Amino acid sequence: MEREDTTAVLDGVGLVEPRSVTIAPPPDSFLLDCGESLSPVTVAYETYGRLNADRSNAVLVAHAFSGDAHAAGWHRGDRKPGWWHDMIGPGRAFDTDRFFIVCSNVLGGCRGTTGPSTVDPATGRPFGGSFPPVTIPDMVRVQACLLDHLGIDTLLSVAGGSMGGQQVLEWLVSYSGRTRSAIVCATAAKHSPQQIAFNEVGRQAILSDPNWNHGDYYGGERPAGGLSVARMVGHITYMSDTSMSEKFGRRVCPDGRSHPFGNGFEVEDYLHHKGSSFVERFDANSYLYITRAIDEYDAARGGSLAAAFEGLEARVLVMSFGSDWLYPSYQSQHVVRACKRAGVEVSYCEVPSTYGHDAFLLEVDEQTRLITHFLRTVEEEG
Amino acid sequence: MEREDTTAVLDGVGLVEPRSVTIAPPPDSFLLDCGESLSPVTVAYETYGRLNADRSNAVLVAHAFSGDAHAAGWHRGDRKPGWWHDMIGPGRAFDTDRFFIVCSNVLGGCRGTTGPSTVDPATGRPFGGSFPPVTIPDMVRVQACLLDHLGIDTLLSVAGGSMGGQQVLEWLVSYSGRTRSAIVCATAAKHSPQQIAFNEVGRQAILSDPNWNHGDYYGGERPAGGLSVARMVGHITYMSDTSMSEKFGRRVCPDGRSHPFGNGFEVEDYLHHKGSSFVERFDANSYLYITRAIDEYDAARGGSLAAAFEGLEARVLVMSFGSDWLYPSYQSQHVVRACKRAGVEVSYCEVPSTYGHDAFLLEVDEQTRLITHFLRTVEEEG
Q1: Is B272 a catalytic residue?
Q2: 3-state secondary structure of A276
Q3: Degrees (nearest 5) of the Cα angle B115, B117, B120?
Q4: Active site residue B54
Q5: B chain contacts of residue A192, beta-carbon cutoff 8 Å
Q6: What was the ipTM of the complex prediction?
Q7: What SS3 class is residue A113?
Q8: Distant-in-sequence, close-in-space partners of A14: CB < 8 Å, separation ≥ 6
Q9: Is the pLDDT of residue B271 over 80?
């Protein structure tokens, strides 16, 4: 018997539809921090739950570097749900019975929002390396335009981890009046040289791939080798020494020795798989543009973060994860201290975890407890 | 006035001469763990100090992955001395007034010892990718042949850090009767999946460079881009979050923004420089062969390290470094515990340092104190 309604087996928010909106259509244009303008800008987004009558229950969720607007539920035919699926849905941390959740793909991305793979209206060809440089503040201004389009003036909260956390900090700094609270996971107000260095290795892997061709590769071979190597580096930094030991040990794949110069270890096979599957879904130029924005970002603009938070009325929840060595807890504690100095109401928890940086995607139970309690407090204050 | 004797300004062991010896000349051959043989095998080495009359004061120093036989002193015209220069010389940790120090380049290397860039006598062309796989035990057996050539039956000690430390462990496991002591710095009896993963990223960067050409590139363009990226990854793992922050912060180079897609941070410039200078002195195929050997190595051969150390009469000194996250202290402590279980006389120190894995090259004072005391104890027992 053929199943007619596939949603019956899909938990959480079930089947979801990708949406998009055009902002800054000609003759308008969207002004970037670099001084250049884009027109139009397409923004891919999804929403879950319902906006209430007084438009006071909206929560913006910001994705991490390689994420997209598909935060929860399934697209028709997909085998995997959105990237924060276990955190978003009825009764979940971001409870769709109470909140209206919005998630959009970032400017410069390759998952529906305008980026280097978009066709430049001036030439009729993809921007490639001629796409203007974008910043985290640019990305956040695009999100603000999306909220304007959705008729949302003030957010109940804005939440995100890693690069998503940087966007949350930018909301606090640049749109403090538009959100009543913020949830900042596993992030840094500015990248350390070690974080910059890992991103730079990824960029150099792409730039040294002859197929990169100064960013002009959309008609031909893509820089798959370089992008794959970049992703492998990333995956090491997303896990912890402990989680890798638990997941792989020194086990060897049955057919592992077929890889030249490897020893056939499962961890090698895992990295190859992660590298080659990333190439299927991500654009190398977006890798370059977005990592540059992440590295350049400094929420305090070279000054004191406490000064940047001065006068902030939003309530803030900060979370870090014990084994996250890419975004170590001291970086989150720096944000917490700045909040306290600025008189901002802030809660902080270092969640125990062996998952490394991936913990913000995987430690569902503890994050759910913390976020549920936090959002209830924000609602009650409203 | 022209200075006639340049050695006057060169401290430590002063000017030194590279040497080499041929082992297993035809019709003899050197049998490898893989079952294949090499003939002849050239070994590049250097010595410092004098072998005493009863040949009892020899210390073998084993280099790390990208090191070579030039451990101390200067070659004529060089601007920089050998890699452990501050540790080897009159009155230093490895005191050349008392000890005869030997250091040789490893099998599979590219600094004078037979490796993939050596001409294969059977074809008249460099081995390239047809060079047989080598192991840490193979490297150590070549060192044993060198000592035979030098007329040294028993070492006073064998010392090394990182991959050099693996060779020291292999001396203990396979030639326990030939050394009276061992100094094991910043190493592991077997690589963790995280350590394997970092090496695999380096290998994939090289293998995905079209110039690699299955290892057959000696007549043409070398895979410089891939090798450079591999080295950049390495350098991040050799430093610590703290040492990178202290050395670079978020400072920007005056001409930094000329690098495409970087932000011109000093740390980016440092990585570019380290990558491109490595390409000048190291062979990509040696990178592949040696890292494979490191990853594959297991001093305990899949069993218990304590069992592998059973009956060992050598005295052992183990050192790790507080901020070394590539070879964390728990791996050294694993070696120490195995020694204790096997009844081996072992001392251990975690040296406080912010230098990360590089500490075994940089923390001269504390290592000097520990090694000086240790070697004096070994001498007095003799």
Answers
A1: no
A2: helix
A3: 80
A4: no
A5: 241, 244-245
A6: 0.95
A7: coil
A8: A7, A73, A74
A9: yes
Is A193 close to B325, i.e. CB distance below 8 A? no
Residue B202 distance to chain A (closest CA, Å): 8
Determine whether the interchain pair B244/A193 forms a contact, defined as Cβ–Cβ distance below 8 Å.
yes
Q: Is B157 a catalytic residue?
A: no
Q: Which of A213, A233, A239 to mutate to test the interface with B (most CBs of B within 10 A)?
A: A233
Q: What share of chain B is helix, strand, coil (3-state, %, to 5)?
A: 40, 15, 40
Instruction: Identify all chain A residues contacting B267, using CB atoms and an 8 Å cutoff.
Output: 193, 196-197, 200
Rounded mean pLDDT, B222-240: 98
Q: Do B228 and A208 touch (CB under 8 A)?
A: yes
- Model-wide pTM > 0.80: yes
User: Which secondary-structure segment (H or E) carries A270?
Assistant: helix A266-281
Chain A residue closest in CA terms to B326:
A241
Give the span between the Cα atoms of B192 and B298, in whole angstroms.
10
- Out of B162, B228, B286, B329, pick the active-site residue: B162
Partners of B260 on chain A (C-beta within 8 Å) are 129, 207
In 3D space, the residue among A106, A228, A290 whose CA is nearest the CA of residue B200 turns out to be: A228
Angle at B180 between CA B176 and CA B182, to 5 degrees: 80
Question: Distance, in angstroms, between A214 CA and closest chain B CA?
Answer: 9
Q: How far apart are CA B181 and CA A352, in angstroms?
A: 42
pLDDT in tens, chain A (382 residues): 344 444 457 899 999 999 999 999 999 999 999 999 999 999 999 999 999 999 999 999 999 999 999 999 999 999 999 999 999 999 999 999 999 999 999 999 999 999 999 999 999 999 999 999 999 999 999 999 999 999 999 999 999 999 999 999 999 999 999 999 999 999 999 999 999 999 999 999 999 999 999 999 999 999 999 999 999 999 999 999 999 999 999 999 987 655 678 789 999 999 999 999 999 999 999 999 999 999 999 999 999 999 999 999 999 999 999 999 999 999 999 999 999 999 999 999 999 999 999 999 999 999 999 999 999 999 998 7
Chain A residues lying within 8 Å of B190, measured CB to CB: 250
Q: For chain B, list the domains and their CATH numbers.
A: 6-190+299-381 (3.40.50.1820), 195-293 (1.10.1740.110)
Is residue B335 within 8 A of residue B305, CB to CB? The reply is yes
Compute the nearest-CA separation of A286 from chain B (Å).
Answer: 11
Residues of B in contact with A355 (CB under 8 A): none
For residue B262, give the 3-state DSSP assignment: coil
Instruction: Give residue A263's pLDDT.
Output: 83
Residue entry with tokens 């891919």 = A44
Residue of B nearest to A135 (CA): B263
Distance CA A228, CA B201 (A): 9
* Residue of chain A nearest B191, judged by CA positions: A250
- Residue B350: pLDDT band by 50, 70, 90 thresholds? very high
- Per the listing, tokens 């040296």 go with B351
Q: Do B295 and A228 touch (CB under 8 A)?
A: no
